[in-house]
Amino acid sequence: METAPRIGLVGSEGSYGRWLRRFFEQRMGLRVLGRDPAGDTALSERELIESVDVLVFCAPIRQTPSVIRHYVEQAAGIERGQLWLDITSTKAAPVAAMLNSQAEVVGLHPMSAAPKSATLRGRAMVVCEARVDTWRPWLERFLAAAEADCVRADAEQHDRVMALVQGMVHATHMAQGAVLRELAPEVGGLEGIRPFSSVGYELDVAVTRRILAGNPAIYQDIQFENPYVAPMLERLAVHLDTLRDLVRRGDDDARDQLREQLLDRSRQYAGKASVAEGSYAFERLGYLLADLREPRFINVFLPLDKPGSLRALLSVFEQRNINLDSIHSSRSAEGELLFRIGVSRAGDASALQDAMKAIEAEGIGRVVEASGLAA
Ligand SMILES: NC(=O)C1=CN([C@@H]2O[C@H](COP(=O)(O)OP(=O)(O)OC[C@H]3O[C@@H](n4cnc5c(N)ncnc54)[C@H](O)[C@@H]3O)[C@@H](O)[C@H]2O)C=CC1
Ligand SMILES: O=C(O)C(=O)Cc1ccc(O)cc1
């Protein structure tokens, strides 16, 4: 086991490759080398393997098993004593390919896109320990530094779970995107529908758009490369077909069947407590969305290392007799921590302008955005 191992990234120019380089260099103080056909080709595959102690595969899902097989061939035994990792969204095929090497092997799957933050704090990460021996102490240090909520699983269990957690969620939302594309134009288009939004619609549209905004190869490969996705889609289609047939029939028996097959049985399966918990989670998201929709707000970046800065911020409003509707801590699109202060619509606009000036002038924070505050 190396105390300061050199890290090799296969796929170093990709979105996770670039994040991992920063993480290993800046958070763990390690030397990082890489290879990527898209612009990081100084080292051959063999030279990269020879130069590192830990090799991390962060290449596209579909290519990764064959990329790993190629590295196993190129390594031809010199990988003995190394640790090989991957972060692919499927686990069985990449882990099996890595196990054909002589290296110690751990499959990882962070359950989030490469974050804007320096660590994976607050996000889940699946850890498939396939062959770990002398690297265990370093692995533990690495996982602690990553700050993710780690969940251990074997590769097959991971893929079965992901058919539900990712495959099903992506499939239903990609289908929603297609249905909206086909049917929304008849009723005013997406913008025409917007004022009619329910909380559920708003949340689903956000998920759909997140998928559409992402790397299409990932969503494609998650459907095609996980063998448990096709049987899941089969079940999904059965239930949607059933629902359509029942609605077409339209009689009382069909209504009873919908209730029994798609509501009562699933409610019983989930259990009273988790249904109540999920329903409350939805309600809270509804309140949050309502607050975020309020047009009058000030977004303030507060320096994190100053105790009492939130109190100072609030006193600016108190001194000017301004009522606050809501306070949320959130992040800017760039990942910067900020407080979003929703202000009462009844308030005096000039008092608000004055408050904003005071926040900056008194060095309390920086107003990064303000809306609806014109006099
Ligand atoms: N982006 C995300 O949201 C998440 C991605 N992952 C996993 O991370 C891995 C990488 O994803 P991203 O960084 O988002 O993809 P990406 O497409 O941004 O990066 C992949 C990189 O691999 C390179 N590459 C292709 N063939 C290669 C080869 N033979 N040798 C070396 N490099 C090669 C590409 O040129 C590209 O730069 C995937 O396996 C994905 O499943 C996991 C969790 C989340
Ligand atoms: O967009 C997000 O935040 C995601 O959740 C994306 C994502 C894509 C692929 C993964 O394997 C894990 C997460």
Secondary structure elements and their pairing?
Layout: E1 7-10, H1 15-27, E2 32-35, H2 45-51, E3 54-57, H3 64-75, E4 83-86, H4 92-99, E5 104-110, E6 124-131, H5 136-146, E7 149-152, H6 155-183, H7 189-193, H8 199-213, H9 216-224, H10 229-249, H11 252-270, H12 272-293, E8 297-301, H13 309-319, E9 324-331, E10 337-343, H14 349-361, E11 366-371
3-(4-hydroxy-phenyl)pyruvic acid (ENO) binds at residues 89, 111-113, 210, 214, 218.
Pfam family, one: PDH_N
Organism: Dyella caseinilytica
Domain ACT: 298-375
The CATH class of the largest domain is identified as: Alpha Beta
Supply the number of helical segments. Answer: 14
Compute the number of structural domains. Answer: 3
Ligands present: 1,4-dihydronicotinamide adenine dinucleotide, 3-(4-hydroxy-phenyl)pyruvic acid
Please tally the β strands and state the result.
11
Percent helix: 40-55%
CATH architecture of the largest domain: 3-Layer(aba) Sandwich
Account of the 3D structure:
The protein is α/β, with parallel strands linked by helices and 375 residues long. The chain is 52% helix and 16% strand. The chain has 14 helices and eleven strands. Strand 3 (54-57), helix 3 and strand 4 form a beta-alpha-beta unit. The protein is flat, with a radius of gyration of 26 Å. 25% of the residues are buried. The site of 1,4-dihydronicotinamide adenine dinucleotide has 26 residues, from helix 1 and helix 3. Residues 5-277 form the Prephenate/arogenate dehydrogenase domain. InterPro entries: 6-PGluconate_DH-like_C_sf, ACT-like_dom_sf, ACT_dom, NAD(P)-bd_dom_sf, PDH_C, PDH_N, Preph/Arog_dehydrog, Prephen_DH. Pathway: Amino-acid biosynthesis; L-tyrosine biosynthesis; (4-hydroxyphenyl)pyruvate from prephenate (NAD(+) route): step 1/1.
